[in-house]
């Protein structure tokens, strides 16, 4: 029985220039590479973790508002229970908004806002990343108002420096005294 020989295929050698495309084939235009990210790796890591957490939270809220919308009704009282001090009207405000109308408020805040700031924090563009980190810091500042200090303070302790260093690394002074944003 004879074996069929496969046609010889030219294998490019290391360092060799790629062969030009044959007749009738189109070559894709070169993809411009993005400029290197000037922010430090630790700040990008904080943005990745915080952004992923917010996108994950938006996903969880999506599931909860579809499967168990009534679960939001008791959270105002829960916030009061975990808070070390009286939250005043906040538990009642929570009950009047998220508790009574979860299919309105959860998509706006719990899904839309969280997904947007999470996606911005995951962006490769430092300016968008700063906006996302700022939004996540604002979200955690709101959690402070609900008494969740043990969760929000550590996050703010890393979010604020990461946002500041990312913002500063994305701006470079030009020769005429103005600041130009790189990227």
TrEMBL record:
Residues 7-17 have a biased composition (Low complexity). The chain crosses the membrane at residues 46-66, 104-123, 130-152. Keywords: Membrane, Transmembrane, Transmembrane helix. Residues 18-39 have a biased composition (Pro residues). Residues 1-39 are annotated as: Disordered. This is Uncharacterized protein. It comes from Georgenia soli.
């Amino acid at each position: 029985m004879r074996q069929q020989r496969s046609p010889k295929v030219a294998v490019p050698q290391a360092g060799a220039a790629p062969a030009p495309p044959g007749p009738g084939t189109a070559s894709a235009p070169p993809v411009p590479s993005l400029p290197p990210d000037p922010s430090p790796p630790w700040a990008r890591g904080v943005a990745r973790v915080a952004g992923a957490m917010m996108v994950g939270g938006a996903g969880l809220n999506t599931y909860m508002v579809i499967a168990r919308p009534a679960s939001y009704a008791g959270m105002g009282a829960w916030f009061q229970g975990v808070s070390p001090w009286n939250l005043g009207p906040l538990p009642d405000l929570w009950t009047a908004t998220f508790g009574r109308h979860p299919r309105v408020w959860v998509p706006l805040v719990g899904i839309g806002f969280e997904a947007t700031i999470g996606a911005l924090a995951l962006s490769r563009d430092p300016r968008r990343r700063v906006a996302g980190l700022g939004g996540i810091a604002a979200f955690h500042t709101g959690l402070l108002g609900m008494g969740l200090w043990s969760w929000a303070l550590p996050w703010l302790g890393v979010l604020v420096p990461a946002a500041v260093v990312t913002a500063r690394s994305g701006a470079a002074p030009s020769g005429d005294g103005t600041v130009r944003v790189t990227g």
